[in-house]
Amino acid sequence: MIRDPTIEERETLQHWEHSGKIAWYQRARTVLLAADDRMDGTAIARTLGLHPNTTRRWLHAFDGEGLDALAPQPTGGSARQFGEELVEALIALLHEPPSQHGAPDERWTLREAAAALVREGWTKEISIESIRRLLREHKHSWQRAKEWLTSPDPRYAFKKDGAIGC
Q1: Could you tell me if 100 and 125 lie in one domain?
Q2: Closest CA to 113 of 83, 151, 142
Q3: What is the dihedral angle through the alpha carbons of 134, 104, 160, 158, rounded to the nearest 10 degrees?
Q4: What is the pLDDT of residues 138-162, one digit of tens each?
Q5: Are residues 65 and 115 in the same domain?
Q6: Are residues 91 and 55 in the same domain?
Q7: Per the structure, how many domains does the chain have?
Q8: C-alpha to C-alpha distance for 107 and 112, rounded to whole angstroms
Q9: Residues 130 and 102 in one domain
């Protein structure tokens, strides 16, 4: 059994429960289930779908050091921040034929978009996961990019624009 949370700790735990972040929610529910329902670590783990060792570790941490010991620790460095100029360049890039930007295919891939941004000097490096995240944040899909068909016909552009009776 753990100690009962103080009024301030209980308010913080209830805030964590409703924060929308799963790591905070799981820790808060673990402590509240142990304090309010007197559940043990194994029962809490079963209820929350966690490993029993995880819930026991959180309960011991709370009991010994309070809420500060429960706060999720950052893993690795912070996510790289890219400016709006890069996002605009990326979206504009996806609306142009890949061959205009040195890509070998006629269809954009995340890898080719990242390589094109680096080749054109928009950034020194960018991962395909960063490209995916930026596009998702701006509600744009790289998968909707079109294939560009070209033709040696000198009237191709005229015909492509929908002229009738060529």
Answers
A1: yes
A2: 142
A3: 120
A4: 888 766 545 555 667 787 767 766 6
A5: no
A6: no
A7: 2
A8: 9
A9: yes
| Predicted structure pTM score | 0.47
Fill in the amino acid letter for 131: I
- Indicate left, alpha or beta for 145 from its phi (over 0: left) and psi (-120 to 50: alpha): beta
* Count of CB atoms situated within 10 Å of the CB of 119: 11
Asked if 93 contacts 116 with a C-beta cutoff of 8 angstroms, the reply is yes
> What are residue 110's phi and psi, to 5 degrees?
-60, -40
User: Angle at CA 80, nearest 5°, toward 77 and 82?
Assistant: 170
Measured between alpha carbons, how far is 2 from 68 in angstroms, rounded to an integer? 16
Number of helices (H) and strands (E) in the chain: give both, helices first: 8, 0
Whether 148 maps to a domain, the answer reads no
Range of the domain at 109: 84-143
